[in-house]
Amino acid sequence: MNTAGAQLANPYARPDSGATTVEKNARNDFSRFATGGFKVLESVKGDLTGAGHADVLLVLDLPLSDPSAAREGLKRSVILLVRDSRGDLQKAASNLNIVPCSTCAGAAGDPYAYSKIEKGHFTIVLGGGSRERWTDEYSFSYAPDTMKWLVSRVVRKVVDMDSNNQKQIELTGKELGEISFNDFDPEQLPEVTLP
């Protein structure tokens, strides 16, 4: 067995179970990852790598000092945090393109709906619009050989709330190609529009 390959496939050893409460609390302090004026909008815990650890997906928002100032175009940051061999959270990946600003969804309000983590896999869900309601689901799976999260599925849907007409496209990772979470940009995807 190639031990170098085994280490690459599972770089995060079990967290130290002998840590004190103070050490454990420090390891779960997400605010240290919210730099440059960002604040934590949401934190979701789960096993991002499939290694059995309590990793974290953070969605960070950039608050403005003047609440009346326009927020249009201020995208949120999504950060993936994984446990190192001591059990400390370390930034493993980030993306500034996926989650739009808080006012970018039209009459529906904030477009960020939720994120969920399953073993070695996570999904970010967005939605918005008014008469034409849209939803986007972006799913990523961990690739142990490259230690990256690659896009595995995209679902884009639009529904006309008056006529009930709808259209949906679903794209797989095979159709999209090998795109890492860091490089994923929804603006490069096909739009879903009603006739």
In short:
The protein has 195 residues and is mainly beta.
Task: Give the helices and strands, then pairings.
Layout: H1 3-9, H2 21-27, E1 39-46, E2 55-61, E3 77-83, E4 89-95, E5 112-118, E6 121-129, E7 132-143, E8 148-160, E9 166-172, H3 173-176
Antiparallel strand pairs: 1-2, 2-3, 3-4, 5-6, 6-7, 7-8, 8-9
Highlighted features:
mainly beta; 39% strand; four-stranded antiparallel sheet; five-stranded antiparallel sheet; 195 residues
Can you describe this structure?
The longest helix has 7 residues, at 3-9. The N and C termini lie far apart (57 Å). A hairpin with a 5-residue loop joins β3 (77-83) and β4 (89-95). The chain is globular, with a radius of gyration of 19 Å. Mean pLDDT is 83; it is low at 1-27. It has one domain (3-185). With 195 residues, it is mainly beta. The chain has three helices and nine strands. It is 9% helix and 39% strand. The protein has helices at 3-9, 21-27, 173-176, and strands at residues 39-46, 55-61, 77-83, 89-95, 112-118, 121-129, 132-143, 148-160, 166-172. A five-stranded antiparallel beta sheet has the order 5-6-7-8-9. A four-stranded antiparallel beta sheet has the order 1-2-3-4, with no helix packed on it.
